[in-house]
Specification:
Structural class of chain B: mainly alpha
Number of helices of chain A: 8
Oligomer: heterodimer
Number of strands of chain A: 0
Structural class of chain A: mainly alpha
Number of helices of chain B: 4
Order of helices and strands of chain A: HHHHHHHH
Largest sheet of chain A: none
Helix content of chain B: 55-70%
Largest interface: A-B, 44 and 53 residues
Order of helices and strands of chain B: HHHH
Radius of gyration of chain A: 22 Å
Strand content of chain A: under 5%
Number of strands of chain B: 0
Chain lengths: 176, 146
């Protein structure tokens, strides 16, 4: 199973690199879809059907909305010229990334073994079906133990919709 | 936005109710099977989006629909907050989101206290939000052209 996961992860990385370098916005969005649908298969392999359902549905909806948004804009990206200044930026980025990787390597050495804390936290949730009487453990956690998180998630969605409506309304008013 | 050919229109008319019912099923069985309010809400919004993509901007007043969806979204998030407040009230001011209803038997359709109600509210919120974003794009783009 790990081999499949590694193949899917490599495909996802290749798709995101291509979408960064694509000259066309439409092909960038579609190659970015590789990341989302690869994630769906990864969730299914890791036995998380809840997340897989949400991911596949949201991925399709966002693809449609993104294509609808792209149709209004110019789809060509202007090509960047190579200047000596850009080489300096690349060098600074590389050095900073190396420093960060070294620091993270040191920091992860201080943590306890991978997954130990997760299982300690997860045991009350796994026993939780007796308390919430919800056969689906994920729903029991999301809507009972951590309902406050769900409230925050709903608020974020609400704010996003208000933001989209505000921006589109301003654009509509200007042309009139 | 223009519609598509008659084949696409007819097939979308046949398939949309099925998608909508599937979304309702996922929401109502959210505490028993994989899925829940979020997934079911997006599937229900997908039925609306398919209908608009196939038929185009045929509704005489799509803007009114959009305002209704906005109202539904705000009402749903308010309902979620009211449920949380009721939990606070019934638990004697101790626990926000306390499960105050009778919990019933594990594995039955009516069980889990107010978890199914929360699922319905979250599903309505998500469905209205996704559909509002899509309809707003269609409506305001058409208004720009005029």
């Amino acid at each position: 199973m790990e081999l499949y996961l590694i193949i899917i992860l490599v495909l996802m990385i290749l798709g995101s690199i291509y979408s960064l370098n694509a000259t066309d916005l439409l092909s960038a969005v579609i190659s970015y879809g590789i990341v989302g649908f690869g994630l769906v298969i990864a969730f299914l392999l890791l036995q998380a059907p809840d997340l897989a359902i949400v991911q596949v549905v949201v991925e399709v909806a966002t693809l449609i909305i993104m294509i609808a948004a792209i149709k209004n804009t110019q789809s060509k990206i202007p090509k960047m010229e190579f200047k000596p200044k850009i080489a300096v930026y690349y060098a600074i980025t590389l050095i900073a990334a190396l420093v960060f990787i070294l620091i993270f390597d040191r920091a992860t050495g201080c943590l306890s073994q991978f997954g130990a804390d997760t299982m300690r936290m997860a045991q009350p949730y796994i026993d939780g079906a007796q308390h919430t009487k919800s056969a689906n453990l994920v729903t029991g956690v999301v809507l009972d133990f951590r309902a406050y998180d769900t409230l925050g998630e709903a608020t974020v969605l609400f704010t996003a919709v208000i933001g989209v409506l505000t921006i589109l309304r301003i654009k509509g008013k200007k042309d009139n | 936005m223009k519609g598509m050919t008659i084949i696409v229109k007819k097939i979308s008319q046949i398939i949309c109710p099925v998608i909508f019912m599937f979304g309702l099923y996922i929401i109502l069985h959210g505490h028993l099977t994989p899925g829940g309010g979020f997934a079911g809400g997006v599937i229900m919004a997908g039925a609306f989006i398919l209908q608009i993509l196939a038929n185009g901007n045929i509704l005489p007043d799509l803007r009114k629909e959009e305002e209704g969806l906005e109202f539904m979204e705000s009402a749903a998030i308010l309902g979620f907050l009211i449920l949380a407040g009721l939990g606070l009230l019934f638990s004697g001011g101790v626990v926000f989101f306390a499960n105050f209803l009778d919990k019933g038997e594990l594995g039955k359709l009516i069980s889990g206290g107010f978890i199914p109600i929360e699922n319905v509210v979250v599903g309505a919120e998500v469905c209205a939000a996704i559909a509002t974003i899509f309809i707003a794009m269609v409506v305001y783009k058409d208004e720009e052209k005029k």
